[in-house]
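Z., the sequence and structure:
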Amino acid sequence: PLTADLIRPISVSVCARVFTNHLEQVGIPCAATMVRDLQKFARLGARIRGELGGAGLQISASNGLKSSYKTGSQSISTTAYASSVLAKSTPRHPSDAYDTSLFSGLFGDSSSSRVTTPLSEPLEGVEIRYEPQTQAVTTSTTTMSNGLKIATENTPGATATIGLYVNAGSIYENGACMGVSHLLEYMAWKGTKNRSSLRVVREIEAIGGNVLASASREQMAYSIDTTRATVPEALEILTDCVVNPKFELWEVKEALDRMKQDVKNLEDNPQTTLLEALHSAAYSGGLGQPLIAPKSVVSSLTPEVAREFVNELYTGARMCLSGAGVEHNELVRLAEPLLGELPAGMVGEPPSQYIGGDWRQFAAGPLTHGVLAFEHAGGWNDVKGSVVATVLQYLLGGGGSFSAGGPGKGMHSRLYTRVLNQYHWMQNCTAMTSIYNNTGLVGIFASAESSHAEDMVSVMCKEIESVAQDLTDVELARAKSAAASSVLMNLESRAVVSEDIGRQVLTYGHRKPINEFLQEIEKVSVADVKKAVTEMMKTPPTMATIGDVSSVPRYDLVSKRFG
């Protein structure tokens, strides 16, 4: 068998005989090429044995998984956890040393504990290093002297995720720096005052890191996945890239080219186009600012603009360092010299006022796309209201006409059973929510054949109205289960846990226990959902449509339907 025993200097003739016996026992004719291959392997084993012996190393195979290595006065024991091809049980009798079948040699003798021990029981001689969690993992939080918060959850596993989250996004932009958040997303993990771009890349590769950066309307996010052993190196790279960017001119120009491509790609992505348009029509102030930089302002962005934005907003009191799979006190100790010198400045959040409105744009094509939304007043800071809005999204569900979608968006959701199953001309009908700290949008996105654009808007209005009229307990129970399962499923991801910690700490000042959200979901009643929808319909609607908009109803007619 191909085991550790083959390292012994056995004769080539014995190897050939053993291999021939194995083949004959399983009914495979012995091929001369196979024998020659085994002869080469035996010579290699003898040569390895000789070289190791010349280096003062003696190798002996023991019973099964363990091998001992001796050199001088030192003895090192190792345990093989991988394939049994590299380990063989001690023969029961000298005459049985090579009298085993091919599959026994590969996968273990029938008398071996590796074959007879159930998977639910530990193997003899194998050390189990993992200890199951007996208590729920909690979130630990520390506030540094400059106001920066460090929050971690020591999730089990050999890998970790750390991230820096900043209260800085498109809502903080003005006419002089519009689009800078979009630019900063592409300038992440570039050259710093201490590292070139090449060095940043090479150091991330050296620790096996996986990096990510994203811009949103209220927050900027930077995260890195790595092993627990390389958290110190990962944290040093992360903090350097976030707080010490150099903004080289040539790198900024490359980022601007990518931004121009994003603007061009909007033409082929009506859903993203409508989401941008929806915010511009719904809000005045910060949330009305575009997240994707308009083509007209891209060329005006410079390294100086980006540098000024970072210097003003990337301060200690506006940042959170989050971690999942890391030890809290150790991360605090590592972060002190890296982030403790940041200024503690705090800039207030620009006001945003919901006003509602209409946006429409003609585009050639067979489909007309539209969004109809209302304000969810209170945003994330209204915990009960945001939970009801989340359950409402899973209640409506929906998806594409050829896809059942994910949890809560399958064939049992209202938009699937009442819309996609009823109207052949409807290509997509999906619930949408965009919730922020103090406000939010809840509505429906739809795509339909252009000849049915008026019917599409009518169906969206009807479905929103119907939730406040004929919602049943069975539908709500299904939606609550889908919402809870989706939350729990997402939190199985270490990266999601780290992001959840960072964003919650920036919003609430701490991380709310998951059980608190699950309890709020369970408390939601039919009356709560009906009341929330009724209150939303009292706010001015916001519409955004693109395609053949000639037959889309006028905004005032849609508004009167809810007035």
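The CA atoms of residues 388 and 524 lie 7 Å apart. The mean pLDDT is 83.

Let me know what you think.
H.
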